[in-house]
Structure formats: structure tokens, C-alpha cells
Design goal:
Elements (H helix, E strand, L loop, with lengths): L1 E6 L2 E9 L1 E3 L5 E4 L2 E7 L12 E3 L31 E3 L4 E7 L9 E10 L44 H9 L24 H15 L9 H19 L15 H10 L13 H4 L1 H5 E3 L23 E3 L19 H4 L6 H10 L2 H4 L2 H14 L6 H4 L3 H10 L3 E2 L2 E2 L12 E6 L4 E8 L6 E7 L10 E4 L11 E3 L2 E11 L4 E8 L7 E9 L5 E12 L1
Parallel strand pairs: 4-9, 14-22
Antiparallel strand pairs: 1-2, 2-5, 3-4, 5-7, 6-8, 8-9, 10-11, 12-13, 15-20, 16-17, 16-21, 18-19, 19-20, 21-22
Helix pairs in contact: 1-3, 2-3, 2-8, 3-4
Length: 539
Amino acid sequence: MVLSVTRHGITWHFTTDRPVATFANGDPAVLGPVQIRAIDPAPTTTGRHMNGSQLNPNPSSTKQGYDSTAPFIPYDSTLNAGLRLPLNLDAGDQLISTESVTQADHTPQVQKAAILTVVSVLPTTNDFRPAYARGIRPTRTYRVSDMDFGALVSTFSPSLAIDIELLEEQFERLWLESSKGWVTRMIHPVENMPDYGRDHCATLGDALLAVNSMTPLEERKRLAIAITQYGIDMYWAVKNGWESGPTGGHGSGRKAAILFAGLLLDPTFLDVNQMTNQYLTFGEDGQTFRVERSLNGSINNGFGNYGVEHLGLPEWGFSHHDTPRNDNSAWDGDPYRVCCTANAWLAQALVARAMGMMAAWGHDVMFEYLDRYVRVMQSPTYPDWQRSWHIEHWREWVAKRREDLNGVNTVGIPIIWEQPYLSLTIPAHASHVATIAVALPDLSATLGVLVISAGGAVKKPKRFCRVDGVTHLTKDLVYLDDQKILSSVTFNTRQNQIVDINIQVGPGTAGQKYILQVGIVNPDGTISCSNACEVTILP
């Protein structure tokens, strides 16, 4: 029996002593009915309204009751339960209370947040906290004892779990999604979660890699419980109208948490696409598409400057499924392509493959686009942060991404993107040095050069070597169809296990076209994890 309970710097004071307990993630519960006489930090009631609280928030709302100066997202004082103290609560009620950032008009405006749940029967630490979204509610109590920890894999580097305790603490805090739209970032609590979708997604990626790392299972269970609680909250928020929209870098990083909870706890979560428009709810789905011919005969309805050469291409658009006129076929035509979206998606895509959640994700083209993204972004012209917001995710992709990820069957998406990222046109009497970047899982890999003729016949690697990180090796001439195509091949190792392969091409026969693919040589002589250069010989 206590007169108050505190969670993450927020304290609720009761009028009389009440029994309390905690859920599996540490969030408090109080036996109802209960009267809240005060909250610390205290809500302000004159001038600027700060430190607000919302009771049973509606996730389909576009307003909030936490702070009257939050930019872009309207404040509604009727939503601020902190203005109605003392506050009588019944079993089933959930109160989210906040502390505001001192500076007004700040992004985001909330410093911290915590949730108090009123119950008719006190929970045990085996029980998950009920989702806080108002509206349709679950008919069952989710329990840790119902979790299938066997759904976790031990695939990723144990170094990714070095900070697992910090990730546990972060994900045990309330990741607040009590309003919809991109403007909800303005009320994402600073101390609880990243406010921007890109950062949000990258942090979730950190957690998903760590919880599926080669760390002993017992050391990963607490984090799995915390991510599952977030997935529960997001599933029921989406079911009750939450959406972010495919706009810029805002909408990423929610779907993976829902599917994770579906695999470990409640399989109905895997059907999340059936209860919402996935293209307007989740940024990753709404921004990726395949370039197709439209019913009116145009390509992509005439938007984005796409031609017949782009048909079938896995592609990205700033707000494609909402506003396709913002599409742009030029890779560097929209900075959001490389600053704020796919550079945060790599980790969750790897985990989706490893855990077998791709079918439930239900949007294969997003995974295809990421293969394309990595091919292009291996170019030395792009800095690490554009490759991946957390560069550890890029390195893990390089080490782990295959058609078959550690024996886990994917949906058969090939690793080799059919379009080369570098194209050369040279006179028949001349030669040219092309530099192609290849990412290696380790510097002992065998590298090769594969020549493909204009007719598409695939030849096995004509020359290959080992790269030890120090030696720059040169190989002899390479011929195809009795024509000298490759004069020399040299290898230069850069940082982050990226190797530049410098290929001197030509002279050759006028009118011929060749694809040069470079990458890791497999035992059967094929090449995987490759990049490519298209060479056309002119008269």
C-alpha cells in the first residue's frame, strides 16, 4: 500500500493508500478505482500549458494535450487530464503523463513520459502492460510465458549486443505514439525515444540485431520483452487508426516491431496489413514501388521522368503512394533518398530475412530496393552516414546478406541487381579504366571478374585473386569471344572492408556490349555480392 508511484521521473500521488505492482517491462499498475490528487512535475494551468497528461489517448487524433507550444501539432486543453486534478480513474484507464522541454516551440516538445495503468487485479511481472490506445481493445492478457523465444535467431555479430543493457533501458521506456501523422514527432519524449523516423528506425534496428545476435539467449530475453511491449502498443495503435504516412523520413521503424511481436507472441499481429492501408501507414511500404506502365499507357502515370529502361525497377519515392508527383528517377534528385530513409532500413530488413518475417511484411519490392540501394551506395562518392545511419548496420549487411541468409529461406529475391550502376562507352581503338567498389564480409574473400556478353551468356570468372588488405594485385589479360576485353585488373583496399577493383577495359570490337561483374567468387565459380559495369564499344 503506497501513496504514490514513480516511473522514469514521473510521480503520481494518490489520495489514499493504494496497492501497486509492475508489469513485465517495469511499468506500474495501481488497483482501481483510484483518485490522482497530484502529478510531479506539476502541470501548469495558466499561460503556457506544460507537463500535460492524456487519459486513454486516441491514436487517430491529430491533436495532443501535453504542451501548448509544441510546434505543428495542435494543442487541445480538453485532452489534458492534468488540468482536471484531482482525477478519478477506474480499472481499465491508462494515464500518460509528461514533463515538457523547458524551451517553448522545441522539436520535440516533450522531455520524458511515463504511463500508469489502473487495474481490477494486480498484474505480475509475467504480464505485459495493456496497449494504451483508445478504442478496440485486446480480449486477452499477453504474458511472457506465452512468448516463443525460439523464434529468435543467433545470426548477427555478438559485438552488436555490447550495449544491450542500454537498449533494454531505452525500450522499457514508453515509446509514445498517441497521435497520428508526421507531426507526432513533436511529442516524442526526448529521454524515451528518438523523435525523427530515420533515427527511430535505426535505433529499433540496433535492438533487433542485438536481440538476434550470437549472444546467449538468456542475455537477450529482457530486450525481447521490451521490444514486444512496443510491438503490442504499435499494433493496437494501428488497429485504432494510427498512421504516419509515406512522407520524407518520418514514417519508418514501426512495422518491424509489430511483426517481431507477432512472431514471438501473437500471430494475429502478422496480419497487420489486413487492417490498415500499409502504404499510408508505414513509410517503408509507402515509399517503395516497382516502376510499371500505367493503365493510360504512360510509365508511373507520367511522374518522375521514368522511361522504358526503368520498367521493372525497384524504386523509391519521397511520398510515392500518397503523392507520386514527387517521384524522381534521378538517384541524387531527392536528398531524402540517401539522407533519411533507406539508410535506416538495412538492419530491420536483415532481421526480417533472418527471422522469416518477409512474407508477413508483404512488400517484397522494399527488400529488392534495399539490394539496389546497397549496390549504388558502395560508390566511394557517398559517405558512410548516407550508406547507413548506423554504419554497423552496413557492415552487418555486407557480412550477412545473401540470397539465403544463414540457411533461412527468403522469397527468392536475387542479390545481384540486374542494372549496372556504372556505364562506360568507349571507342573501339581506346581503352578506359573503370573502378568498381565491392564490399567484403572479410578481407580473405576470393574476388573475381565475370564477363557477360551482349547476348546475356554468363561466363565463369576469367581471373580472380585473394585480397589480404595489403597487397595490390595485378592479373593478366582476359578474353571473351576472342576479343581482349580486360587489359588488367588491380585491387585497392579501402576502409570498412570496401575494395576498389580497377579494370582497364578495351580496346575491343566496335558495336559490342559487355557487362563486367565483380564480387566474391563462390565455390561453383559464380559471383555473389557483386557490382557491375556496362561497357559499350563504339565504332
